Structures are given as C-alpha cells and as structure tokens.
Amino acid sequence: MQTAFTRFMLIVAFLVLWIGGIGVRLVHLQINQHDALRDKALSQRRDTTREKQLRGTIYDRSNRALAMSVKAKSLYADPGEIDDVETTAKAVAKSLKLKPADVLKSLKDARDAGKRFVWLARKLDEDAVRKLNESLENKDLKKSDLPKTAGLHWKEEQKRSYPYNSLAAQVVGFSNADDVGSAGIEQSQEENLRGAIIKGWQDRDRLGRVYDESDEDAEREPPKDVVLTLNYSIQYKLEQALEQGVKNAAAKSGMAIVMVPQTGEILAMANYPTFDPNKYGESAPENFTNRAIHDIYSPGSVFKLITYGAALNEGIINPNGQVDCTQGYIEVAGHRFNDPHATKWMSYDEALAVSSNVAAIKTGLATGRENFYQYAQRFGIGQPTGVELPAEAGGIFRSPKTWNGDSLASMSIGYEISVSALQMASAYATIANDGIRVQPHIIKEIRNADGKIFSTTEAPKTQVVTSDTARSLKKMLRQVVLTGTGKRAQLNGYTSAGKTGTAWKYDAKLKKINENKYVSSFIGMAPLENPSVVIAVVLDEPGVGARDGGQVSAPIFRDIAEQILPELNVAPDGSLRQENLTADDIPSELDPRSAAKNEKARTEKDADKTAKTETSDKKSADSEKTKDLKTPKKDPKTAPANDKKGTTKKTAQLIIDLPRNKSSGEGTGENT
Amino acid sequence: MKKKSLPKTGKSDKIRREKDPIPWRYCILTLVCGVFLVGGFFLAARAHFSSIDFGIKNSGLKKQIDDLESEKRRLLLLKEIALSPAELKKAAKKLGLTEITASSFETVRSDDAKPDASPNAKNADDKPKPAVAEKNANDRPAEKNGKDGSSKDKPRAAQKDDRTAPPVKIAKK
After folding, report:
1. What is the pLDDT of chain A when averaged over all its residues?
2. Of A190, A264, A238, A185, which is closest to residue A441 (Cα–Cα)?
3. Are A657 and A407 in contact (CB under 8 A)?
4. What is the mean pLDDT of the segment spanning A414-425?
5. Smallest Cα–Cα separation from A353: which of A180, A470, A441, A483?
6. How far apart are CA A222 and CA A59, in angstroms?
7. Collapsing DSSP states into helix, strand and coil, what is residue A183?
8. What residues contact A222, with CB distance under 8 A and at least 6 apart?
9. Contact A486, A552 (CB under 8 A)
10. Most buried of A17, A187, A535, A575, CB within 10 angstroms?
11. What kind and span of H or E run contains A218?
12. Left if phi > 0, otherwise alpha if psi is -120 to 50, otherwise beta: which for B111?
C-alpha cells in the first residue's frame, strides 16, 4: 500500500513538475520573450513597405497636363540570393541591352562587399518590364513575384513625364531622379507637389503570396496638383514665334511674355534656346534659366514709359505740350546725350513715337529725383514681382542718394537701371489696366488630390497712376506704333500700342558697354481701348540687319498678337496694317553714326572670317548680306534664304568669340 | 497475546454489489462536446484558411486596381503626348497637310478697304495677307454703313461676294 502511494505521488510530482516546467517555459516565452518572439514571427511573414505617392500634376489653365508622374519599375538584385551570378548577369544584360561584363562586375562587387541591394535598371516602362519578365522567366523556380529569377526583384518607382516636351520648359522646370523639383514650378511648389511616403506592411505566406496588408501610416498629406495660368496653345504659339524671331535676327537668345493686364495672369512665358525636361541631362544647363525673370538688362527706351508716366501723373507735362529738341543733344553734368532723330520742337506724343532721348531726359529732369524714384518703385522696378517662380531677380535700381549728376538723365532713357522682362511687362500691364498694377502671377489655383480647390491666387492690386494718365500714355504708345519706331507692331484687325527699346549691353569682359551688343525689345498691348494682352519681347544680341527693337522684336509681337487675339475671342477693332514697310519707313532707335560705325566694323570682321573659311560662292552671298546690314530694308522674316544662311554662320562665330555675359545695368547712359 | 482475526474477504452471498450501468448520458455528452470542439476547431481552421485565401485574393485585386490606375495614368499621358501641338504637327505632316501661316493666305480686298494709317496700301495688294485681314477689310465698311448695313458704299468686291459667295480666303499654293 505504502509502495503504491509512493509510486502514485512520484507520478503526480513528475506530472506537476512537467506541467509546471511547461507552464514556466510558456510564461517565459509569452511574457519575458514576447516582443522578441513576436518580432521574429513577424519578420518571417511580414514585409514593411515604403511607397511614395505619385507626385502632383502640373496643369495649364485648360487642364492640360504639363507635367505628370506615372508608375515605373526598377530592377534590383540581391546578390546573396543569386546562385549563378554569371548566367544571371548575361541574361539581364541581354534583356536590357547592357554590357554583360558591367552587370557581372557590379553583381560580383556587391556580393564581395556583402551588399544585398544593387540597382540594375531604373524606371523602365511597361513594355520593357514585360519583355524582361518574359526573358528572365525560370519555370522551375517557385517564386510568387516577377521576375521569376532568383535574386532579382522589381521595385515600384515613379517617372516624371512632360508630355509637351519643351513647352514652357523653363516655367514648369523639372524634377530630378529622386523626384525632387529642381527648377521652375517643380522647384517652387515642391511642398505641394511632393508625393507622400506611405509606410505599410504585407504579410506573406510560405509561397510569398501577400495575404494581408495595410498602408495606414502616411507620413504627410497627399500631394496637390498645381494649375497654372498658362495656356498651352498660346504658349506654343509664343514659343514658335520667338524661335523664328530669334533665328531671323540671329540673336543669342530671346524671351517673351504674354500677360493679362486686368488679372496679372501670365498666359505664356517663353525662352529661346530652350530644352526638353524629359531629357534635361542632355541639355546645356544655361538653357534651364528662365531668362524672363532671372536675367536683368538695361531696358533702354521702353523705360521711357515710366519717365513720361511719372511726369504726366504729376501734371508736369501733357501729351500735346511741346518740347525743345532742336539741338539734337543735351548735356547733363558734363555728359552729352545725343539724339540725332529728334532735332526740332515736337510734342511729347511725337517725342515718344520717335523715341527722343532729349525729350525723355528733359521730362525726367523736370520730374525730379525723388518723384522719379518713387514712381519707378511703384511700377515695380528694383524689386521682384513676386511671381511664383524660383530665383526671380529684383533688378538694379539704386537709391537717389547714390546717384551721380547724370544718373537721372541716364535713368530717364533706361540706363543705370537693370530690369527683368517680367518687371517691364508688368509696368506696361499697369498702363494697360488704367494705372492699376496687378501683381503678376503664374499659379491659378492649387487643388487637393480629390480635385477640390485648396487655394486660389488672389493678386494684390495697387493704383500706380491715375486712369487719365494711363489713357494718355496708351494714346502716346499708340502713336509709337502708328507713326514711330514701332510700326512693325501694327496688327491686322486690331489696334495696338507699345514701345520699342534698344539698349547697349554692358560687357563684363571689357568692363564697359559694348556698342556692338544690344538688347532689343518691344513691349506692347492690344487692343488699344481695353487691352486683353500685354506682350513683351526681348532679344539678346540680335546679330543681323537692323537690330533695334522696332525691327527685330516688334514683328515678333505682331506675329504673336495676331495669332492669339482671335484665340482669346477678342473682337477685331482695327484695320489692316501697313504692308511693304521698309527700314527707311521706320524711325530707328540706333544712332546712325554709331550704327554705321558698328556695322562697318562688323562687316569687316565678318569679311575677314568669311575669306578664311568660306568658298567663293559663299563670299558673294556674304557681300549681299553686308549690303543688307548697312541698309536694312527687309523684314527679317521675309529675308531670302541665302541671307539667313550667311547670318546664321556669323552668329555661331559671335557666340564662340564672345562668352555669354549678363547686362549689369551699368550703362553709361549713352544714347541709342 | 490475543490473536486478532481479520474479516473474511471472500464473497458473501448476502452482500450484492450494484453493477454500475454504462454512463451513456455522459458518453454522449462528452461525444457531443468533442464534436463541438472538433467542429469548432474545424470551422476555425476553415475560417482561418479562407481568410488567408480572401486576403490573397484581396491583395490581388488591390494590385489589379493599382495596375489599372497606373495604366489609366499611362494612357492619360499618352493622350496628352498625342494631343501636344508638336505631335499634331507631325501627324498632320504625315497626312500630307502643309502648315498654314497668316502669310499663306491671299485676301480678296476691295479698293475701298484701305488701312487707316497706310500710305502704301496700293502696293499692299501684291502681298499675301493674313486671314484676319480680309475679315476686317470686309467688315469695317459694313460697320460704318447705314443702320440697315446695306449702304451703297459697300465695297464692290464685297457686294459681289455676297451674291456669288465665293471663298474669301484663297490658300496660297
């Protein structure tokens, strides 16, 4: 009995110990090692994912996508999982058309270094992915993901595409390989456009199939879409016209802006040369620059609008008042400003029409330093316009305290000042809008991912001059187009007004202005009564024919305006423009003496170069071209083909000889 | 020493032990519980595996949605590319169409329709005019005419046009 009891107790004790041991072990595993074991279990079945949402889209005002992102796949390898590196490298190289040796080297290097991640190809499109999956398929391999090759995996990425290629390239900008905006709107709106990173997890079964997943953890808000004020059609037409104009004038570069004066909206902003953001790596970096807001230059005679605007608003002059220009020059603080075009008493109307420097200087001097400075500032000179684009230049406009004796005179005709094309376009838009300046802007609205409007741009407005002053100025600008230097800006069917400008450039190399280099511009508006658009065209260093703004920039204005006004449903209010205009019919802004001297020097230089490089046939073509340069008579657009050929070659030489430099706005106030 | 006799352990006829009946009720209860338990396990296992199965299918569908969204976006991109002015131009050229600019048009212009500030208007007829030009040339006099718009000052060419209605624009070949 005793023995039985003892045995029984032993068994019970054993069972208690056994169960107790198990219990203790269970408690230890479930409580003490809970986290470690849970993590271990999760790591066996769970993958963490980090997916970047697609970057926001950039639209034009008619909802055409100017930049959008699509999903793309990138191929990477885990060398540790690859058994036969050489075979895999060969297969991959064959599919991707790469050198097998390069692929093999990168795989081997990574394997030796213990790396478990090597990029093999990035951002491939659907077709390439499909082909690669087919070519790399190993049917014996049990792998749930494609490609069915050991050690190779796809990673979802995104690819930024610009469907309109170079259209508005400098405005839209581009984003780099890491999807970070690097220029233009892409850069300035990075915060809105950037795709949110979504953290998530996926549970996989033993075959690698996902059976549970979650992506609740978003690091930030979903990306927003940006709607621009640009109109793709007007932008295209502007770019085409500008390109043609730059080529015809053999200019170094060109920029143009179309603005709606009443709203400050920029309908188009073009630069030439340009680039394709889809292949930004293949373009010269200087082409990325949005010259219309970044480059500053001495505006020359287009600035006279501000001079006359200040004087008119202060009641110092009236458009029909007479001004004495009989001397043909004016001396201020020992500096002589020549004016060969205006040598008589004339009204301010006429003076602006022929771009008289004497009249403008006298007007500026009568206005006074402080007034002049105040008005220029109110027109937005010397400060960034505030447009939503990166790296906008504010220009150079010194305080009156630092002015020299002749500074006011120089500034009255657009020297000793540097502006951007947008600043000048905005000043003209102020006049077009009855003296109310509306801050230029290029973003219409920002939308949430669900399409709801997040914010709309409301541009601040400022009354700069009275509406009477603005109307008087418009009439004066109309005279420029009808009888003055801007005749080539006459439009078929529409009335137009504007001002030409031709300024010598400051040469940083020479440390003084270079009389051979001009910035030729035309800024105008149409129709006259209630302007629908203000168009600014600026050509940098036109190199052929008459190079003043009225000859090279005004025709571009005309081309653009005649195309876009009907598109904007603007009712025609004008008549036919003058045809058969020759250079002789249009008062030139260039001093004939200095222009002739320059042309002679240029012609001789060209002739020397031509003699060395060209054949005898081409020599004769160049002599014709030289003749044209001396007495420019033809519209560059209608110039014969052989002229164009000759000038193109010459420009290429100019570009090589003279490195690019920005006008610094330190012109001496010399008369052009 | 008194000898203590132990009771006999042999069977007594007087004492009848009751034989325990088979506890069917307990057996059945146990069986039912067992069946419930096993059925529960079975159902739980089935639910577990079907949930995994549904999860797999759900993931597949999610992926499909993602793929379709990507495809939609890709097609949108292709549409935008196809609608870009440069591509349209290329397509038009392939179809044999030629580019028409404003200067590609000749305008039938009346003698009366002269530009307001155009001393060279006579010579201007020799040159091709943009499309907008002819519209104005014909519209303007009409606007200036009498209230009914049928003035005798209406350009002859325009009047002729009204009757015969020929195309005003002539594309330059």
Report:
1. 83
2. A264
3. no
4. 94
5. A483
6. 17
7. coil
8. A53, A195, A196, A448, A449
9. no
10. A535
11. strand A210-218
12. alpha
Q: Per the CB < 8 Å rule, is A165 touching B84?
A: yes
- Report the greatest alpha carbon distance in chain B: 170
More confident residue, B77 or A214: B77
Chain B hits for A203, CB-CB cut-off 8 Å, are: 55
Cα distances from A641 to residues A226, A581, A623, B128, in angstroms, run 43, 19, 14, 18
- Amino acid of residue A280: Y
- What CA–CA distance (Å, rounded) separates A412 from A362? 9
- pLDDT over 90 (residue A618): no
Interface contact B170, partner A, CB < 8 A:
no
Please say whether the dihedral angle defined by the alpha carbons of residues A199, A141, B64 and B79, taken in this order, is positive or negative: positive
Q: If DSSP codes are grouped into helix, strand and coil, which group holds residue B70?
A: helix
Pairing state between β A345-347 and A253-259:
unpaired
Q: Could you report the per-residue pLDDT of A27-40, keeping only the tens digit for each? A: 999 999 999 999 99
Helix (H, G, I), strand (E, B) or coil at A32: helix
Nearest to B59 among A71, A211, A580 (CB): A211
Q: Is the pLDDT of residue A294 over 60?
A: yes
Name the residue of chain A whose CA is nearest to B88's CA.
Answer: A164
C-alpha pair distances (Å), B159 with each of A497, B110, B166:
33, 10, 11
- Best to test chain A binding among B84, B101, B105, B114 (most A CBs inside 10 Å): B84
For chain B, the structural domain boundaries read 24-85, 102-171
- State yes or no: pLDDT of A103 exceeds 90: no
Does the beta-carbon distance from B86 to A165 stay under 8 Å?
yes
Nearest residue to A667 (alpha-carbon basis) of A299, A374, A251, A252 = A299
pLDDT at A578 over 80: no
Radius of gyration of the CA atoms of chain A, in A: 35
Omega before A527 within 30 of 0, i.e. cis: yes
H/E element, A11: helix A2-27
Instruction: Kindly state the greatest CA–CA separation across chain A.
Output: 147
**Contact criterion met (CB < 8 Å) for B115 and A577:** yes
Q: Which two tokens stand for residue A477?
A: 């600008």
Structure tokens at A599: 């042309």
User: Environment class of residue A336 by beta-carbon count within 10 Å: exposed (0-12), middle (13-18) or buried (19+)?
Assistant: exposed
Structure tokens at A499: 């001002």
Q: Phi/psi of residue A160, each to 5°?
A: -85, 130
Sheet holding A512-526, edge to edge: A266-272, A253-259, A533-540, A512-526, A497-507
Task: Point out which residues pair with A503 in neighbouring strands.
Answer: A519
**Does A581 sit within 8 Å of B70, measured CB to CB?**
no
Q: Catalogue all structural domains in chain A, each as residue range(s) with its CATH number.
A: 72-161 (3.90.1310.10), 232-657 (3.40.710.10)
Categorize the per-residue pLDDT at B46 as very low, low, confident or very high, splitting at 50, 70 and 90.
Answer: very high
A165 interfacial to chain B (CB closer than 8 Å): yes
Which has the higher per-residue pLDDT, A659 or B89? Answer: B89
pLDDT surpassing 50 at residue A660: no
Count of pairs with CB atoms under 8 A, one residue in A, one in B: 125
Mean pLDDT calculated for residue range B45-62: 92
Q: What is the least distance, in Å, from the CA of A434 to any CA of chain B?
A: 25
